[in-house]
Design a protein that fits this description.
seven-stranded mixed beta sheet; Aminopeptidase; about 30% helix; about 170 residues; binds coenzyme A; single chain
């Protein structure tokens, strides 16, 4: 079996995976209110944040203790697909490579957990996701692969699915 394209591409990134700007820790129940507020300000989906299928990490500023970045994914029922979500950086810290690290971190965790393919919704940040190997996909294919996820269920119920842009890559 060949190496994962994700592992391969990491080696091509400057410094490889783990550039050291971030050290995410798993979000716990006590982190949830602040995490939710951080994601609300970043205009990201809040549905199912406390669900066991949603895996969330946060980065806290060592001095202030405030959350400055988040990342995560939501698994499909069979674990083979991962919906990358909650990737966000404090507006004052954007543009310095933290987002790329967060994206790689979430993909790496999903790969370790057995996911073979990553998906996500993004209307505004397509060029960012292209930098980490995503290409556009059919929202119907995403919804089929990740039918049980909170984000797909919410977007289906609200009709937002048809207005979304889907992205995917192999892990
Ligand atoms: C998207 C986001 C996480 C990027 O974080 P960041 O720390 O600014 O990203 P980086 O500094 O690692 O950017 C890496 C590259 O992507 C580009 N990029 C970042 N965000 C971009 C965007 N929204 N659109 C186009 N390009 C973008 C950067 O310019 C940079 O390009 P360069 O290497 O040619 O200079 C951040 O803008 C954010 O929190 N947005 C709000 C939440 C969101 O939309 N999240 C994504 C959906 S889950």
């Amino acid at each position: 079996m060949g190496a994962s394209p994700l592992l391969h591409s990491k080696n091509l990134m400057p410094g490889g995976y783990g550039w050291g700007m971030i050290n995410p820790s798993r979000a716990t129940t006590t982190d949830m209110a602040e995490t939710s507020e951080f994601l609300r300000v970043a205009d990201l989906t809040l549905s199912g944040l406390d669900s066991p299928s949603v895996h969330l990490w946060i980065c806290r500023d060592k001095t202030t203790g405030h959350i400055f970045a988040t990342t995560g994914y939501e698994s499909s029922e069979d674990g083979g697909h991962a919906l990358i979500r909650s990737v966000a950086v404090d507006p004052g810290l954007r543009g310095s490579g933290i987002g790329l690290e967060l994206a790689h971190f979430a993909m790496e965790r999903a790969l370790e957990a057995g996911a073979k393919r990553a998906w996500l919704f993004s209307r505004r940040s397509g060029p960012f996701w292209q930098k980490v190997g995503f290409t556009t996909a059919d929202t119907k294919d995403l919804a089929e692969a990740l039918v049980s996820t909170h984000q797909v269920q919410l977007f289906t119920e609200t009709g937002q699915l048809g207005r979304e842009v889907a992205w995917t890559r192999q892990l």
